[in-house]
Amino acid sequence: MRYLVDTDHAVALLRNHPPVRSRIEALPDDVELHISIITAAELFYGAYLAQDASRRIQQVKRFLADVDTLGLDLEGTEIYGRLKAELRERGQLIEDNDLYIASIALRHDLILLTGNTRHYERLPALRLETWLKL
C-alpha cells in the first residue's frame, strides 16, 4: 500500500495521536508513506504560528526528514487543471491546497490518508482512508 499523508494526519503524527501512531507502528515494511510539498508548507505555517515556534519548526524538520516529499510535475498540474474545471462546472470547488494534494495523490496512484473525507469525496477517482476516527 502507498499513502499520501494529508495535513491533519501529519499533525496527528507530530502530536503522537494514539490511533494514528499505533496504525503507523503496525504497518508492514513494504507500506510507503509520502507527504506532499503542500502539506510540508502547511506544517511549517502552523509551526511558525505556534507560541513555541522554534521548537515546532525543528519538530517539523525532523518529521519531514523521515518521509518522502512529493511535489507537482507537469502531469500533476494537468490533473489539477482538469479537476478544478470539473469541480467548477459542478459548483463544488474545494480549496486550492486540497486540490493540489489530491492531484499529487492521483498522479502517483496513492491513497490519500485524510480526516477530510467528506470534502475529498467530490473527487470519485481519489482513494481515501482515515485513521483519525479509530
* Poorly predicted tracts of residues: none
Q: Please give the count of helices.
A: 7
Reported by name, the CATH topology is: Rossmann fold
For the CA atoms, what is the radius of gyration?
15 Å
Count of discrete structural domains: 1
Write structural notes for this entry.
The protein is α/β, with parallel strands linked by helices and 134 residues long. It is built from seven helices and five strands; from the N terminus they run E-H-H-E-H-H-E-H-H-E-H-E. Strands 3-2-1-4-5 form a five-stranded parallel β-sheet. Helix 7 links the parallel strand 4 and strand 5. Helix 5 crosses helix 6. The two termini are 19 Å apart. The relative contact order is 0.21. The model has no long low-confidence stretch (mean pLDDT 95).
Task: Please give a quick description of this structure.
Helix content is 56%, strand content 13%. It is of the alpha/beta class and 134 residues long. The two termini are 19 Å apart.
Spell out the blueprint of helices and strands.
Layout lengths: L1 E4 L1 H8 L3 H8 L6 E5 H13 L3 H13 L2 E3 L3 H17 L5 H12 L3 E3 L3 H4 L7 E2 L5
Helix pairs in contact: 3-4, 5-6
